[in-house]
Write a structure and sequence with these properties.
- The chain has five helices and five strands.
- It has 122 residues and is of the alpha/beta class.
- It has a single domain, classed as Rossmann fold (3-Layer(aba) Sandwich), CATH 3.40.50.1970.
- Strands 4-3-5 form a three-stranded parallel beta sheet, sandwiched between helices. It has a two-stranded antiparallel ribbon with strand order 1-2.
- Helix 3 crosses helix 4.
- It starts with a strand and ends in a 5-residue tail after the last helix.
- The mean pLDDT is 90.
Length: 122
């Protein structure tokens, strides 16, 4: 397993999902794009690892390539409703980027996209 930090942690590689078995928290939201990840068992593995850690999980799917503002705001709304303490982006860059943007508007609901885009504004 490898780790990459900018400013949040990205875990990737062959054994990355098993890391989730040791995380601490109460509820996670899993952000992803394609339903293929459900069909191929990837999302099931993520949910099972969280279950081992005693963490409830909810899903947010349908993140498109180059996620839209609408998708990000919809995800942030779900986060405010579900109140997760862990946010997990699964897949390529788009779901990971969307999860990071959703986190901003979950934590800072008063922010605009313009404010969030300013360097060092968070």
């Amino acid at each position: 397993m490898q780790r990459f930090t900018i400013p949040r942690d990205l875990y990737f590689g062959e054994d990355a999902v098993s890391y989730l078995k040791g995380v601490k928290g109460k509820k996670a939201i899993i952000v992803f794009g394609s339903e293929r990840l459900v069909k191929d068992g990837t999302i099931g593995k993520v949910k099972e690892a969280l279950k081992v850690a005693g963490i409830e999980s909810v899903l947010f799917s349908g993140v498109e390539p180059d996620p839209s503002v609408e998708t990000v705001m919809k995800g942030a709304k779900v986060m405010r409703e579900e109140n997760p303490d862990i946010i997990i982006g699964v897949g390529g860059g788009s779901p990971i980027d969307a999860a990071k943007a959703m986190w901003i508007f979950y934590e800072y609901p008063e922010f605009t996209f313009e404010e969030a885009a300013k360097p060092f504004n968070l």
